Each structure stands twice: as structure tokens, then as C-alpha cells.
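TASK: fixed-backbone design
INPUT:
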């Protein structure tokens, strides 16, 4: 059960982090620069907007997968030994 709760917390954190990161990074003047630019700099490398959103989407989908595993773990009655 402890592993399942840990997975739920990690899953939710991974799902929310890309959204929070994007809105914090793209607030104010950065938002207008983001809309007008074709290339972004992330971790010191130039990437396109498609790669940027793909990376954020991949992190969110990974979080959803971990969250589903955690929810399944809490619903399994044979999982009491953890």
C-alpha cells in the first residue's frame, strides 16, 4: 500500500509539473516572445516548439501512467503486504 501511495503522489506531481513550469516560464514578456519565436532554449540547447511541447507532454503522460499504476495498487486486495 505504501508503494501505491508513493506512485500516486509521484504520478500527480509529474502530471502537474509540466503545466506549472510552462505557465511560470511563459508569463509576462516571455509569453509574447514565446508566441513569436520558432526556437526555444531549454537546458542550454535550442529546440523547436514541437519538441518543447512533446517533452512536456511525454512527462505528463509518464505521470499519468505512474498514477494509474498507483491507483491499481490501492484497489488490489492482495497488496496489503507492502
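OUTPUT:
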Amino acid at each position: 500500500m505504501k508503494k501505491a501511495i508513493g506512485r500516486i503522489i509521484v504520478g500527480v506531481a509529474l502530471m502537474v509539473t509540466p503545466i506549472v513550469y510552462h505557465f511560470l516560464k511563459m508569463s509576462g514578456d516571455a509569453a509574447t516572445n514565446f508566441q513569436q519565436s520558432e526556437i526555444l532554449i531549454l537546458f542550454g540547447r535550442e529546440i523547436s516548439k514541437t519538441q518543447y511541447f512533446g517533452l512536456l507532454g511525454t512527462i505528463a503522460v509518464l505521470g499519468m501512467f505512474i498514477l494509474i499504476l498507483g491507483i491499481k495498487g490501492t484497489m488490489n486486495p492482495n497488496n496489503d503486504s507492502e
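COMMENT: The radius of gyration is 17 Å.
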